[in-house]
Design brief:
By secondary structure, the chain is of the alpha/beta class. It is 32% helix and 22% strand. It is built from 8 helices and 10 strands. The protein has helices at residues 48-55, 78-88, 104-114, 119-132, 148-160, 178-195, 206-209, 239-248, and strands at 6-15, 22-32, 37-41, 63-68, 71-72, 89-92, 166-170, 198-202, 214-219, 222-228. Bound molecules: adenosine-5'-diphosphate and magnesium ion (MG). Residues 15-16, 22, 24, 42, 44-50 line the site of adenosine-5'-diphosphate. Residues 243-280 are annotated as: Disordered.
Length: 280
């Protein structure tokens, strides 16, 4: 669906003023190809969330540019940028992003309702996504009646209902146990790919990163290393993350796609995708 990359050039972001300035991004270049999934890893405070927010047009950089479909997000007027964010981007955060008083189907339908889609169509689309993500029968449950993993699937449905070109996710499995996190990441990457959207996901979990086609490591506001999914040898200079992952990993960190033996098969079947338009 997308035909252009998301491209960041020379991103610098400084918070605060001269006295207590923090340089969160120190000159980041990043190109995310259509349909590509990129994991952003790095220690706390290295600038991951800042980078995600700048890429998504949520936060303005101090300097540098973000190009998306021929437009520089950093120079667009606020209103146009908000509009573009709503129509072209989807977001998944760590937790607590669903409206507690709304059932799952209405939560997931929100972007469509905000965009003026007639309610029956919006709810219908939302329900198809929920079913697609393994939540059939839970459409009327409120977030408090869902497990953490189920709530994240609702959030994924919400990120995808509007057919975004890019989905941004900040620590989407951070509040989940390992197995549930694994399932949620599979749901997120599979659904995003099937939709033809790109994915940019911040994570501290090496296993989560394995669901992505590329991993970039940040330190002190810079991308310091990069690895593609094929040979995932930990890059030189990023010893800490690589070392712990190999020590703790049961499957070994090198598999480009996660081994199905590493966890239970997931209920995310893809026979009738909601975007296919095939009514059943
Ligand atoms: N709103 C803010 N105001 C001031 N400093 C901030 C703000 N947000 C983040 N920072 C600082 O910027 C740096 C990068 O933060 P962040 O992007 O949140 O890193 P990460 O997501 O990798 O933990 C940190 O030093 C952090 O303290
Ligand atoms: Mg962060």
């Amino acid at each position: 669906m997308t035909s252009a990359p998301l491209e960041a050039r020379g991103l610098v972001k400084t918070y605060g003023d001269q006295g207590v300035a923090t340089r969160a991004l120190a000159g980041v270049d990043l190109v995310v190809a259509p349909g590509e999934s990129v994991a952003i890893m790095g220690p706390s405070g290295s600038g991951k969330t800042t980078l995600l927010h700048v890429l998504a047009g949520v936060l303005a950089p101090t300097s540098g540019s973000v190009l998306w479909r021929g437009q520089d997000l950093t120079t667009l007027p606020d209103r146009a940028r908000t509009q573009l964010r709503r129509s072209d981007f989807g977001f998944v955060f760590q937790a607590g992003q669903l409206l507690p008083e709304l059932p799952a189907d209405e939560n997931a339908a929100l972007p469509l309702l905000l965009a003026g889609t007639p309610r029956p169509t919006a709810i219908d689309t939302s329900r198809r996504w929920l079913a697609h993500l393994g939540l059939a029968g839970m459409e009327r449950r409120r977030p408090g009646e869902l497990s953490g993993g189920q709530a994240q699937r609702v959030a994924i449905a919400r990120a995808l209902v509007g057919r975004p070109g890019v989905v941004f996710a900040d620590e989407p499995t951070g509040a989940l146990d390992r197995h549930t996190g694994w399932e949620v990441m599979q749901a997120l990457t599979t659904a995003t790919r099937a939709q033809g959207a790109s994915l940019v996901v911040v994570t501290h979990d090496e296993e989560v990163a394995h669901w992505c086609s590329r991993t970039v490591h940040m330190r002190d506001g810079l991308i310091v290393a990069e690895a593609h999914a094929q040979p995932v040898a930990p890059a030189a200079g990023v010893t800490a993350a690589g070392a712990t992952a190999s020590a703790a990993g049961t499957t070994g960190p090198a598999s480009p796609t996660p081994s199905p033996t590493a966890s239970q098969p997931l209920p995310v079947a893809l026979p009738t995708a909601p975007w296919s338009g095939a009514a059943r």
